[in-house]
Each structure stands twice: as structure tokens, then as C-alpha cells.
Amino acid sequence: MSAPTIRRTALAAAATLLVASTPAFATHSWGGYHWGRTTKQFTLQLGNNLTTVDWRNHLLAIVSDWNSPDLFGATFTPVLTAIVGGKTTSSCSMVAGTTQVCNARYGTTGWLGLASINISGAHITRGTAKMNDTYFTTTTYNTVNEKRHVMCQEVAHTFGLAHQSETGASLNTCMDYFSNTGANATKTISTRPNYHDFEELNMVYGHVDGTTTYTAAAATAAATPSEVDITDDPQSWGQLVRQSANGRSSEYERNNRDGSVTLTHVYWTVETAARCPGCDHRYEHHDKPD
């Protein structure tokens, strides 16, 4: 059995044990991955590399939601967030101990949003969330609610959350794959977290660690591209390890020379998924929608 397979098997067993011993119903952890911390609650820095007021306002709203569990029927969140100055460019290089949030015209790649985490063991050590303005500046995707939905989801992936649903139905959480486009463009459902998202965070972070992997103070050094980063080349994502039945969600895994692993969630456009749900969309031709 290979080392990556052993690691995934061990993490799956740990996640199963955690769920079995916790009287809760949420089951959308991203493999049990979490930030290492020695306190019950911590603050994750979100580096603001956003280039427009529009995107910055969405980030402000998202941070407010994730920091306010009481608005969604929960009483506590272990993960608080704080917006700090960005330390990267549109390439969205990783900065240790933080999540860097970026937007740019990444081209007709077929994806709307992309979230990556670098992990050591089960601990997240850094993350990025990217929004593709090649699509978000088109009539189809340039809606307040679709932007809010995608950014809310990509940022939350870097907390260690996966999707509550991948069918396209709305569970009224940004962690589902409802599309706030077309006839649904004015609908605000699926643009914010819900109770079960906080329930899952409390399960994943229901223990403290003996180490800290997040940055407690504002990072001072700018990011420099490193081996743990993904790039605009989708081949840098590594191996496709799973894809949703409708083709809108893919997860990739790459083993790095330093022993860490970079994992990437990809949120494809509706058009890309519909063309070939079972394909690895990296190898397809992608059109820009109207």
C-alpha cells in the first residue's frame, strides 16, 4: 500500500471515529483536515488580494457571516476570520499560516472558483481561494448572489469544510452546488453558511492540538512561489482523486518533495460540467459564456 493511500485510510478512520463519537449530523468535513491550534477558538487570517471594491465587499460580508454563528442558530464557532493585507499577486501564492484570497482573469479554464490547502499530516498549514473573473465578468455569472456563493464556499474549503450537497439542489448553504444564475440570479439562498456548517466545524475542531499551524500575528513577508503552490497550469494540481456525479466538483491531490500534500477543490462552470460530467475537465476545450 502506497504512503498516500495509507495516509488517506488513516485519516478516513480518524474521521469515522470522530463522527461516531459525536452526537451531531453534519458530515461534510474535507477529510478531517484542520488548522493546528492549542486553543478552542482561533482566528484565521484572510489575505485580501482582491482587485475590485465589489469583491472586497463580498469578502467583508462573508467574514461577517462566518464570524456570527448565532445568526444561523449555532452558539459557537472554533474558526474566526480576520481580513489582513494580502501578501501575493493574482498568482495567489501560499503564505504559511494564512489563507490568501484572490481574483483575476485566469482565462477560459472552465472553473469559477478554486480552493487549495497545503497539509502536513492532518493539519492545514496554508491555503488559497481564487475567483475567476474571466467568467465572473460575463452576463451569466456576474451576479451578486453567484459571486457571494462561490467566494463563501472557496474560503470555507480552507477551513476544512467540504460540500453538504453536490447535486445542484439548494440546502440554503454556500457549501452546496446550487447555481445563483439565470432564473435563480436574484435568489439569495445558498449564499451564506447554515447551522450544519457550524455544526461540522465544531466536530472537526472538537479537540485541541499540540501544535499551531495558523499565524497569530500579521504576516510581514510577501509570498514567494514555492513547490507547495499550484499554478495557472492545471497539471500542477496533481492527480484527480474524486469528482461529483454531475461533474461540477473535482478534487485533486499532489504530493510534494517536502513530504506535504497540496489538495485542490475545483468548482467548474455549469457549461463545463454539462458538456461531459464524467471527464477530467482539465483536458477539455472551454468556451467563455455570454
What is the mean predicted local confidence, pLDDT?
90
CATH topology: Collagenase (Catalytic Domain)
User: Helical amount among residues, as a percent range?
Assistant: 10-25%
Q: What would you say the CATH architecture is? A: 3-Layer(aba) Sandwich
The CATH superfamily bears the name Collagenase (Catalytic Domain)
Q: What percent of residues are in strands?
A: 15-25%
Q: Major beta sheet, specifics?
A: 9 strands, mixed
Radius of gyration of CA atoms, rounded to a whole number? 18 Å
Counting helices, strands and paired strands, the structural category is alpha/beta
Tally of discrete structural domains? 1
- If helices are DSSP runs of H or I spanning 4 or more residues, what is the number of helices? 6
Give the CATH class.
Alpha Beta
* CA-based shape: globular
Q: Write down the secondary-structure element order.
A: HEEHEEEEHHHEEEH
Distance between the termini: 47 Å
**Strand segment tally:** 9
**Oligomer category:** single chain
Query: Would you identify the regions where 5 or more consecutive residues have pLDDT less than 50?
Result: 1-24
Kindly describe this structure.
This protein is α/β, with parallel strands linked by helices and 290 residues long. The chain has one domain: Collagenase (Catalytic Domain). Helices cover 23% and strands 22% of the residues. Strands 1, 2, 3, 4, 5, 6, 7, 8 and 9 form a 9-stranded mixed sheet that branches. Strand 8 (249-255) and strand 9 form a beta hairpin. The model is unreliable at 1-24 (pLDDT under 50).
